């Protein structure tokens, strides 16, 4: 790859580095100085501590405005490296090289962030990469749990857009996906997201639809501890609740049974929410950054392809969540 940058810093994690770091370094090293910084794999690295260490590294490597930061890895690395690039020297260029299914989604839309112990992505900004470099061959080394995780966002895109595509996805066994299928679903998902983001870059309106399943997901991730459940698995469970809530609160007619069956067949970790502390989850949902003046704004579906942002009172949310958790524990006992 040709470059006019003088220095390049590749940020990656301990699981991706042994697989792809050397290849990427080689691609640049004949033209520029290339350094790397490897953070521990896992969501816990999207932290103030790693952010601070990375800034120390940028300064000691004397990166300047003609330098480039590359985020090589999944959504965790993308969000962390992007946030470093967005703030160092008030912003230097940033390239994303997504290596997970989920990162194909997260590299569209320009959101970068780190987590706070109180909640996901509470510290961040909008900052677009100058390029996104896709190599879907890297997805072949993904563990099954990460394919499952990535599918949480894929199915979200289908529910936001297209009933036929949903039916197609409900037939998918995530452990037996062909590369062709994966490529097709990834590009469809990116298209759905890009269409929405194009209309509402700063999330004042329809971009909020992309948060389908995320209010509960973020609460689950923070409550269980970052890294105990993958982001996409949490989203998949959060969507299940959103579907049930849409039926009960809006009278929508949705394929919730089919969806739940698909989750179970594909081993989504429903057991993790059986004994969850409901009151703490509600507190966390209120804390999620999508909350405005204590009213919980929830993305529900009037139908497949017809999302809406609905205000839910806390007492109603409590009732919906109580019923949902009861349903999940009954299903968990049967399986
Ligand atoms: N910015 C956005 O718009 C946006 C959107 C969705 C999600 N996100 C964020 O993305 C993060 C989740 O992303 P993720 O699911 O990619 O998690 P991740 O980056 O933690 O990657 C998951 C695991 O897979 C490993 N891995 C990555 N690529 C691999 C490969 N090719 N082969 C083998 N192992 C590989 C990683 O080392 C890690 O252990 C969350 O922090 C979430 O908040 C951001
Ligand atoms: Zn997400």
TrEMBL record:
EC numbers on record: 4.2.3.4
InterPro entries found in the cross-reference section: Dehydroquinate_synthase, DHQ_synth_AroB, DHQ_synth_fam, DHQS/DOIS_N, DHQS_C
General function of this protein: Catalyzes the conversion of 3-deoxy-D-arabino-heptulosonate 7-phosphate (DAHP) to dehydroquinate (DHQ).
Cellular component annotations (GO), alphabetically ordered: cytoplasm
Binding site for NAD(+): 99-100, 111, 120
Keyword annotations from UniProtKB, A to Z: Amino-acid biosynthesis, Aromatic amino acid biosynthesis, Cobalt, Cytoplasm, Lyase, Metal-binding, NAD, Nucleotide-binding, Zinc
Gene designation per UniProt: aroB
Free-text comment on the cofactor: Binds 1 divalent metal cation per subunit. Can use either Co(2+) or Zn(2+).
Lineage of origin: Bacteria, Bacillati, Bacillota, Bacilli, Bacillales
Boundaries of every 3-dehydroquinate synthase C-terminal domain copy: 150-291
Superkingdom of origin organism: Bacteria
KW Magnesium (keyword) present: no
Domain (3-dehydroquinate synthase N-terminal): residue spans on this chain: 37-148
Protein name per its UniProtKB record: 3-dehydroquinate synthase
SUPFAM superfamilies reported for this sequence: Dehydroquinate synthase-like
Keyword Metal-binding recorded: yes
Cofactor: NAD(+); Co(2+); Zn(2+)
């Amino acid at each position: 790859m040709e470059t006019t940058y003088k220095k390049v810093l590749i940020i990656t994690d301990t699981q991706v580095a042994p697989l792809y770091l050397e290849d990427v370094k080689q691609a640049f090293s004949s033209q520029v100085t290339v350094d790397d910084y490897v953070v521990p794999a896992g969501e816990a690295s999207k932290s103030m501590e790693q952010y601070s260490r990375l800034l120390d590294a940028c300064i000691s490597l004397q990166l300047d405005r003609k330098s480039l930061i590359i985020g090589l890895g999944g959504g965790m690395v993308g969000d962390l490296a992007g946030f470093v690039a967005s703030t160092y020297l008030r912003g230097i260029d940033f390239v994303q090289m997504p290596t997970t299914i989920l990162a194909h989604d997260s590299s569209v839309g320009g959101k970068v962030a780190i987590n706070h112990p109180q909640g996901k992505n509470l510290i961040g900004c909008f900052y677009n990469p100058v390029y996104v470099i896709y190599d879907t061959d890297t997805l072949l080394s993904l563990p099954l749990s990460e394919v499952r995780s990535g599918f949480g966002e894929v199915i979200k895109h289908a529910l936001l857009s297209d009933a036929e595509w949903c039916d197609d996805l409900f037939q998918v066994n995530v452990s037996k996906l062909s590369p062709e299928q994966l490529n097709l679903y990834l590009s469809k998902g990116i298209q759905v997201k890009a269409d929405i983001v194009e209309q509402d870059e700063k999330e004042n309106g329809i971009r909020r639809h992309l948060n389908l399943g995320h209010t509960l997901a973020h609460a689950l991730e923070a409550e269980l501890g970052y890294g105990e459940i993958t982001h996409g698995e949490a989203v998949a469970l959060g969507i299940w609740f959103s579907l049930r809530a849409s039926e009960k609160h809006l009278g929508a007619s949705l394929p919730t049974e089919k969806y739940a069956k698909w989750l179970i067949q594909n081993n989504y970790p429903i057991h993790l929410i059986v004994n969850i502390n409901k009151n703490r989850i509600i507190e966390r949902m209120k804390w999620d950054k999508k909350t405005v003046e204590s009213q919980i704004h929830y993305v529900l579906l009037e139908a497949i392809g017809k999302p809406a942002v609905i205000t839910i009172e806390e007492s109603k949310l409590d009732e919906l969540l109580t019923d949902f958790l009861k349903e999940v524990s009954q299903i968990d006992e049967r399986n």
